[in-house]
Amino acid sequence: MSKPKLIVTRRWHPDVEAVLAERYDTQLNADDHPMSVAELQDALRNADAVLPTVSDKVTAEVLSVDNMRAKMLGSNGVGFNHIDLEAAKAAGLTVTNTPEVLTDCTADLAMALLLTVARRVGEGERHLRNGEWTGWRPTHMMGTSVTGKTLGLIGMGRIARAVAARAAHGFNMKIIYHDPFPPKAEDIADLHATQCASPEEVYAQADFVSLHCPGGKETYHLIGTDALKAMKSSAFLINSARGDVIDEAALVTALENGEIAGAGLDVFENEPVVHPGLLKLENVVLLPHLGSATQETRKAMGMRVVENIDAFFAGQTPRDKLV
Questions:
Q1: Could you confirm whether 23 is annotated as catalytic?
Q2: Which one of 166, 242, 275, 298 is the catalytic residue?
Q3: What pTM was computed for the model?
Q4: 20 to 30 A from 218, CA-CA: which of 37, 181, 224, 315?
Q5: pLDDT (0 to 100) of residue 1
Q6: Any catalytic annotation for residue 132?
């Protein structure tokens, strides 16, 4: 019996690629180039399952392909706003993602962004590497303390709760949050977190606002001019969720005008393009979407996709099925 054919849209952790090649008829993207609409459509025509990543836009146009052979999309990533789920469902595709395995890694990075922008770490390193440092002095490059401050979370899912645990137990921060689908009380009991009735209530109180909501139509440009004006002028914005949650043009204006103190961003509205205004600002920390980028986590994510694929082709329901 022939093995199911898989097409993997980008390079994955080598250990995962080896498992895929052993178990399936696997076609890899040897040069790791971003696949075009036409290439994604060809993949859907020629494979039993296509394995995209969060950088692949699996739109209604892509999914409108004639003579589709694929029956499954095994996405490598926890987010799924890059896939038109309604169009995928209409096309008869099963779609899975990789939740849980990247929670701690992404939470670590969110805290890294928070600490880096508050203590001016990126700015300080550039200052030193450029040969501008003339020695210690009392007023040099003073940042903002983190310990004891208020952390406001927009969204209170697994990653947000992991960030809150690090902030509360590691830095004695007060935790406030807003989530239209709040967690169970027992899941946040040790955080002593306060639920806010609206995002605006979070903006008004928080010294650090950290975003942990999904991307898509409902949260598109959630952080725009009004939200930024509602924040303290001393507040910092942290985003390790999805780039389109922030109106980057509005953020640049707010930062230039001193409406907020700074921002730490791992994701962007039009990745890999970054708003040029952000690149010019010293009070912004910019990372190239590194939230889950550790050896251990990227392997675990890939193996979660393998688990979902194995279940699907065994006639079972994958545990991470979205549609």
A1: no
A2: 242
A3: 0.95
A4: 37
A5: 73
A6: no
